[in-house]
Amino acid sequence: MAKRCLVLRQVTALTLALCVDACFVYAAVVVEHAHGTGASSAWVFALLRCLALGAVTVAALGGLPPVPARLLAAHCALPAVMETGTAVLGLEDNRCGVVADARCWLMCTGASLAAAFFWETLLPVSDGEGKTQNKPRVLFMRVVRMYKPDYPAMLAAFFFLTLAVVCQMSIQFYTGKIIDNLRANYLPNEFFSALLLMGLYSLGSSLGAGCRGGLFTWARHSFTCRVNCKLFEALTKQEVGFFETVQIGELTSRLSTDTSMMGDTACLNVNVLLRNLIKMVANLVLMLQLSWQLTLIVLMVVPVSSLIQNIYNKHEQRLKLAIQNSLAEEKKTAHEILSGIRTVRSFSAEKHEARHYDNRLLDTNVLKNQRQTVRIVYLLGRRLTDLVMQVLILWYGRLFIQRGKMSTGHLVTFILYQSDLQYNIMALIYICSNMLNSVGAAAKVFEYLDREPQINTKGELAPNQLQGHIVFCNLNFAYPKRPDIPVLKNFSLELRAGEMTALVGPSGEGKSTCACLLKRWYEPGDGKILLDKVPLESYNCRYLSKKIALVNQEPVLFSGTIGDNIAYGLDDCSIHTIQEAAGLADAHNFIMQLDKGYDTEVGEGGSLLSKSERQRIAVARALARQPQVLILDEITSCLDEDSENKVLRNLANRLNQTLLVIAHRLNTIEKADQIVVIGGGRVQELGTHRELLAKKGIYCKVREKLATN
Question: Whole-prediction pTM value?
Answer without folding.
Answer: 0.62
